[in-house]
Amino acid sequence: MTQAELTNQNHKKTRVFSDWTPKGGIGKSSLAVQIAACLAEMGKKVLLIEIDMQRNASKTLLSESPEYNITHIITEKVPITQAIYQARENLFVIAADRDLDQAANHILINGRKAYDVLKRAIDSLTGYNVVIFDHSPNWTTVTNAALRASKEILVPVELEPYAIDGIIEMFEKLQDEMYDHELTITGIIPNKVDFRSPMTQTYLSQVTEEFKEKVTPYIRIDKQIPQSQAYKQTIFEFNSYSKSAKDIRKLVDFIINSGDNDNA
Ligand SMILES: Nc1ncnc2c1ncn2[C@@H]1O[C@H](COP(=O)(O)OP(=O)(O)OP(=O)(O)O)[C@@H](O)[C@H]1O
Ligand SMILES: [Mg+2]
What we know:
Blueprint: H1 3-13, E1 15-19, H2 28-41, E2 46-51, H3 56-61, H4 70-74, E3 85-88, E4 91-94, H5 100-110, H6 112-115, H7 117-123, E5 130-135, H8 141-149, E6 152-158, H9 163-177, E7 184-191, H10 200-211, H11 224-230, H12 235-239, H13 243-257
Parallel strand pairs: 1-5, 1-6, 2-4, 2-5, 6-7
Antiparallel strand pairs: 3-4
Helix pairs in contact: 2-13, 7-8
Adenosine-5'-triphosphate binds near residues 56, 219, 221, 222 and 229.
């Protein structure tokens, strides 16, 4: 087998997710970190790529700001392997930095070839079972490039008025922007679910009726999520028996079962 065939075969086995919704503060970074941590705990080799200059994911997982980051990869200053930092056993991170807008400008100026740099960089990696992009809520050329590098999408949603409208609008945006790239919707993830709130069950039923088997097990609202972040820990390190840790495990089972058997 040639090196190219080997790389191609390896990449086929890697599931590449974007965790994206244009709505801010809904739990994208929190879920990306916890899903990645849970998969890593199960023995999967996971790479979390942060494309948000708020850096919430890498602040939780890394003790300091790394020398090389996602901007260096997109602007082709360093090969992708040089910007990967180990955060935990089986869990690796490419961090963002405040210079992420330089990467967005670089793509804007250099066009098609620059949009594909991330995809080619990920294709060149071997040995990872899962790659997850943690997106910013804003749409930039980096969002576009990361979605083009992804094969699947996870969409966190809060159960609130107009949640369904928001998801449909987002899918329309994806259709407009990604008409030439196939993205599988792997899961719509109800997050911060609070059954003390009288309308929660109604909204959950409506979302399930609309999106059916795409709706994943829900993640309950749990103050231990922000608490764990304050201690720079994953929820499994902070309290593996917490309700959100239990919910994340169910979610990860759903994600694993949604793939082919020889994938993650
Ligand atoms: N299940 C949950 N229970 C309680 N709090 C949660 C839960 N999920 C996320 N949060 C909290 O909600 C806040 C926003 O979460 P997070 O930063 O993950 O959202 P985001 O979608 O990545 O935001 P942004 O759009 O700004 O990137 C954080 O304080 C986080 O700790
Ligand atoms: Mg975020």
